[in-house]
Amino acid sequence: MTTFNLVRTVLNNVDDVAGRWQHEGGEVLQKNKKVGWYASTKRVTFGATDAQNTAMLTLTIFLGKSRTGATENITLQGAHDFNTGNEIGSVSAASATQSAVRGKTFNRLVNTVNIG
What we know:
Order of helices and strands: EEEEEEEE
Number of domains: 1
Strand content: over 45%
Largest sheet: 8 strands, antiparallel, barrel
Helix content: under 10%
Structural class: mainly beta
Shape: globular
Strand order of the largest sheet: 1-2-3-4-5-6-7-8
Radius of gyration: 15 Å
Distance between the termini: 5 Å
Number of strands: 8
């Protein structure tokens, strides 16, 4: 299992006629050492009367550069539950050196992301 801790430094909410976009970003730590940055987008669609309790989620973790100079990354897609704050889903894409995590499940509780 791979574990990352996220330290949020930016949070913006943007509303449009159909709902809300929430953009979040910050630092990624692994074993208390900074290893990169992350960007997260959540999309909440409003229904006839209220917002739904879940949102579509895309979270990308940008890690250091590989030996070739390319930035390593892992992209997670899933859902965010506004009642609990939990996020669940799977790894939808990853750079070549991170390919072992493709298709694995993830969960995020507060600021801890576990993959695998």
